[in-house]
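Reply to dn_fold:

You asked what the input looked like. This is it:
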Amino acid sequence: MSNDGCGAPAQTATSADLDTQGQTVVAGKVTGGEGPLGGAYVRLLNGDGEFVGEVQASAEGDFRFYAAPGSWTVRALHRVGTGEASVTAAAPGLHQVAISVA
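and this is what came back:
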């Protein structure tokens, strides 16, 4: 898997039936005007807006983070623009978020 030298791990698809094994998972898809945006850099920010981690979306725009329960902002950066969304992960499990980039 290539990560274009940024240090962000590349992702694979995350399905709704993912066994999280008791962990809190924030996952979703980055999309734009033409559909999924592969290769976007996706950042996880905590409730205070502080940077926690970054991954590179898969070719299909999928991303995932293993996080603690709480409120999160997920921000995507792509050559066509940026976008962000918020998610509250109150308990362990899969918490899905979609990010539209413009």
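Residues 49 and 73 are 7 Å apart (CA to CA).
Hope that clears it up.
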